[in-house]
């Protein structure tokens, strides 16, 4: 049985992290990712004489497994496995597997390396059988591990990895796609890190293009080379050296130029000029623009990219926000770049996205092809769209999609995006300052209180007008909710405040709009259900979710009130949590996987989490590979489940009564007050004593009732055990008998679509409730004007003074 994609990732990370010991994550990653690399190429290419990677005899992962437990394991890995792989394939240096300072010495090294090898030798981690066509599961696993290592590495050492979400944005906004790409198309990253940006660009091209990367850190360049291979891009060329001082890619003494360039260079690099004669730069990168300051390399990298682009080239670079507004030499460079029309757009990103820094960054998009006709720069303020992810922020799928849609289609969105004319940027009041808040006011509108309304009463018409987004959809609803106050700029509620929600939710226009949204979703659900039921083994999961999600997104095109990107995110969240694993299972084994059920293994108490996995749904840890047991039970064993529910209800009622008796009689002075513990033995003993004492019948009844409740609880537990065991047996027997049609119905209609139906219905309700909440807020805010409050205070004052007078007191 192939392992699920999410289980593959988490098991790799948990196992590897457990072996890390005291080694820094930025160093340990090299060992884990090398092991992943050797395992992958062995599974995929061993014995294939036409493979892009040649595996010498004796240098496969199987040969590495043979070294487990040997005293010379570290030295043997270096000499017998890694060195031959490196020499035959012209790879970068691998980490030293015989380094006692990192891996320990003697038995400690033998144990650590042996366990690490065995992690990747598990039968369920046969990578060759876990790759759906067109979906690089192992490449994605590499990205997963890189993200975790970057998170663990801290600010100073996490710069080898650009978050995949940001890489995806860059790749999608530079304009590369299947239609404009050929085998001759070139893409370049001068600070490629582990290569994720380049790979995302290749994904957008959807065909084999030429990839070029340069990375200063040798070890990181090695990771990039491995990453290329793991993502089926073995022709990608990575060079290890300083890009600014010693650029690798030249043609006739000039910098080689490329169709596309992307980069996430180290922010504000202080020593960028080491080895660079900026004033006499042989590549003329700074000519016509200006020389970047010695202690800040941001513009050095930007100008390198500009010089490395063809006359029709497109590029994008991630830089700190400071490049948009800093003065002195950088101000002059920025002005010259703008005057030449090279900047197509700027996208402001949220803070704390990157692993090397917490400061906010921006994406500067370069377009040489249209520079001479450029009249404006398109700006996007995307700083508020993100989700918290541990101690970092992360772009959600909806944030990525919105940024890309808005930027590529140049869509002006209030408080989010606009085309800023070059004339406005060049105006003396702005003086070529590109700071986004100068041009896009993304601040939330202040909710201003109306003093006169507080004094005289009434809801300001200005606040009602601000709800025009709703009134365009419900044009007559406003008159049903408000009535104007004569000769005034204020209105009052036309219904009781308590009837607001009912008035809105039963209004014909509201019902019509809600039903229309439901119909839209039902139509999408009907079409998508048919498509998903037609999936077969060999389907491409990433294509499936792309097609499905895009159809849902565009179902809500131009729909008032509801945000289509919020709807889209519900599907993408469910994809990430559940549906992705299911589709990968289908891609591997087809619908027959719905006949499979497992008993989950309990986690060891000695594991890092020190927890034992609880029983799933009361059936001793049963897990259906595609169909969860509760779904099977709901459709085929509802009677048995109802019986279990009844027993549980009786159990809970009995326990509640028992708790009441303990609380009522367990206090000091109570019937159970002197007992060491309130349990069967103690209460039985007490009952005998009370009978001997001939205590009141009420006391005897309490004891007898308590004991009966305990007896009842024991009997219910016994009945539950028997009933659950019988249900479990029936459930296990049912799975293999399910037909393909039944499996499709359960999975598509009752698992996937049911969850999405609830999520999107909730989204529609949230939008609808927004109007009710705002009107209620306004009504409550101005419900008690000052004269009314004054009258209430005066009345209360009179009552207090009257009470004081009766007591013989006078309040002056």
Automatic annotation (TrEMBL):
Catalytic activity as recorded in UniProt: a 2'-deoxyadenosine in DNA + S-adenosyl-L-methionine = an N(6)-methyl-2'-deoxyadenosine in DNA + S-adenosyl-L-homocysteine + H(+)
Keyword S-adenosyl-L-methionine attached: yes
Residue ranges of domain N6 adenine-specific DNA methyltransferase N-terminal in the record: 10-118
Family to which the UniProt record says this protein belongs: Belongs to the N(4)/N(6)-methyltransferase family.
PANTHER family xrefs: SLR6095 PROTEIN, TYPE I RESTRICTION ENZYME MJAVIII METHYLASE SUBUNIT
GO annotation terms (biological process): DNA restriction-modification system; methylation
GO molecular function terms attached to this record: DNA binding; N-methyltransferase activity; site-specific DNA-methyltransferase (adenine-specific) activity
Protein's recorded name: site-specific DNA-methyltransferase (adenine-specific)
Keyword Transferase: yes
EC class (word): transferase
Domain DNA methylase adenine-specific: 135-447
Keywords: Methyltransferase, Restriction system, S-adenosyl-L-methionine, Transferase
InterPro entries (UniProt xref): D12N6_MeTrfase_N, DNA_Adenine_Mtase, DNA_methylase_A-5, DNA_methylase_N6_adenine_CS, Restrct_endonuc_T1M, SAM-dependent_MTases_sf, T1MK-like_N_sf
Enzyme Commission code(s) on record: 2.1.1.72
Pfam families reported in the protein's UniProt record: HsdM_N, N6_Mtase
């Amino acid at each position: 049985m192939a392992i699920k994609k999410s289980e593959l990732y988490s098991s790799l990370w948990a196992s590897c992290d457990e072996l890390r010991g005291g080694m820094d994550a930025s160093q340990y990653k090299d060992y884990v990712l090398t092991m992943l690399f050797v395992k992958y190429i062995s599974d995929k290419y061993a014995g294939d004489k036409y493979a892009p990677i040649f595996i010498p005899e004796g240098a496969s992962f199987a040969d590495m497994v043979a070294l487990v437990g040997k005293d010379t394991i570290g030295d043997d890995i270096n000499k017998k496995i890694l060195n031959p792989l490196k020499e035959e394939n012209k790879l970068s240096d691998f980490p030293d597997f015989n380094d006692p300072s990192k891996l320990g010495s003697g038995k400690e090294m033998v144990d650590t390396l042996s366990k690490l090898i065995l992690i990747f030798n598990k039968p369920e981690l046969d990578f060759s059988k876990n790759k759906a066509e067109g979906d690089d599961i192992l490449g994605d696993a590499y990205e997963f591990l890189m993200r975790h290592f970057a998170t663990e590495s801290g600010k100073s050492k996490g710069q080898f990895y650009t978050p995949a979400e940001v890489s995806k944005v860059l790749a999608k906004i530079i304009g590369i796609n299947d239609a404009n790409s050929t085998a001759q198309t070139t893409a370049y990253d001068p600070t490629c890190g582990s290569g994720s940006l380049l790979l995302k660009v290749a994904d957008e091209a959807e065909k084999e293009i030429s990839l070029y990367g340069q990375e200063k850190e040798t070890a990181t360049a090695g990771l990039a080379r491995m990453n290329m291979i793991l993502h089926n891009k073995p022709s990608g060329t990575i060079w290890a050296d300083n890009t600014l001082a010693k650029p690798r890619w030249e043609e006739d003494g000039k910098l080689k130029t490329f169709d596309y360039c992307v980069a996430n260079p180290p922010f504000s690099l202080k020593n960028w000029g080491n080895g660079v004669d900026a004033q006499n730069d042989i590549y003329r990168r700074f000519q016509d623009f200006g020389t970047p300051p010695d202690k800040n390399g941001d513009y050095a990298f930007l100008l390198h990219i500009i010089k490395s682009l063809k006359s029709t080239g497109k590029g994008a670079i991630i830089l700190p926000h400071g490049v948009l507004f800093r003065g002195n030499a950088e101000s002059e460079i920025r002005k010259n770049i703008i005057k030449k029309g090279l900047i197509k757009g700027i996208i402001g990103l949220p803070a704390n996205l990157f692993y090397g820094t917490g400061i906010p960054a921006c994406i500067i998009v370069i377009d040489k092809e249209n520079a001479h006709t450029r009249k404006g720069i398109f700006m996007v303020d995307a700083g508020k769209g993100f989700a918290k992810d541990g101690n970092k922020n992360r772009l959600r799928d909806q944030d990525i999609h919105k940024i890309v849609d808005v930027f590529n289609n140049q869509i002006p969105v209030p408080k989010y995006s606009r085309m800023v004319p070059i004339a406005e940027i060049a105006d003396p009041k702005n003086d070529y300052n590109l700071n986004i808040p100068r041009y896009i006011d993304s601040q939330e509108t202040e909710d201003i209180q109306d003093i006169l309304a507080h004094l005289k009463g009434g809801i300001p018409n200005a606040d009602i007008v601000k709800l025009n987004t709703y009134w365009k959809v419900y044009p007559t609803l406003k008159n049903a909710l408000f009535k104007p106050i004569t000769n005034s700029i204020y209105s009052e509620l036309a219904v009781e405040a308590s009837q607001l929600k009912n008035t809105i939710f039963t209004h014909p226009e509201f019902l019509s709009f809600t039903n229309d949204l439901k119909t839209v979703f039902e139509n999408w659900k009907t079409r998508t259900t048919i498509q998903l039921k037609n999936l077969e083994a060999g389907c491409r999961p990433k294509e499936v979710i792309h097609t499905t999600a895009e159809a849902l997104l565009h179902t809500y095109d131009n729909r008032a009130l509801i945000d289509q990107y919020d709807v889209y995110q519900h599907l993408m969240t469910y994809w990430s949590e559940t549906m992705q694993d299911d589709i990968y299972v289908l891609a591997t084994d087809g619908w027959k996987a719905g006949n499979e059920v497992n008993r989950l293994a309990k986690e060891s108490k000695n594991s890092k989490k020190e927890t034992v996995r609880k029983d799933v749904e009361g059936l001793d840890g049963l897990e259906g590979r595609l169909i969860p047991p509760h779904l099977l039970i709901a459709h085929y064993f509802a009677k048995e489940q109802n019986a279990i529910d009844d027993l549980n209800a009786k159990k809970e009622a009995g326990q509640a009564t028992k708790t009441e008796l303990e609380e009522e009689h367990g206090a000091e002075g109570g019937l159970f007050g002197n007992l060491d513990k309130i349990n069967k033995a103690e209460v039985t003993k007490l009952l005998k004593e009370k009978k001997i004492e001939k205590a009141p019948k009420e006391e005897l009844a309490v004891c007898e009732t308590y004991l009966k409740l305990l007896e009842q609880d024991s009997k219910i537990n016994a009945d539950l055990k028997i009933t659950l065991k019988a249900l479990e047996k029936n459930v296990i027997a049912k799975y293999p008998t399910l037909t393909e049609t039944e499996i499709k119905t359960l999975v598509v209609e009752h698992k996937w679509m049911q969850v999405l139906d609830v999520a999107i219905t909730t989204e529609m309700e949230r939008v609808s409730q927004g109007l009710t909440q705002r009107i209620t807020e306004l009504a409550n805010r101005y419900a008690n004007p000052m004269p009314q409050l004054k009258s209430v205070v005066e009345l209360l004052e009179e009552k207090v003074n009257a009470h004081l007078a009766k007591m013989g007191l006078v309040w002056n």
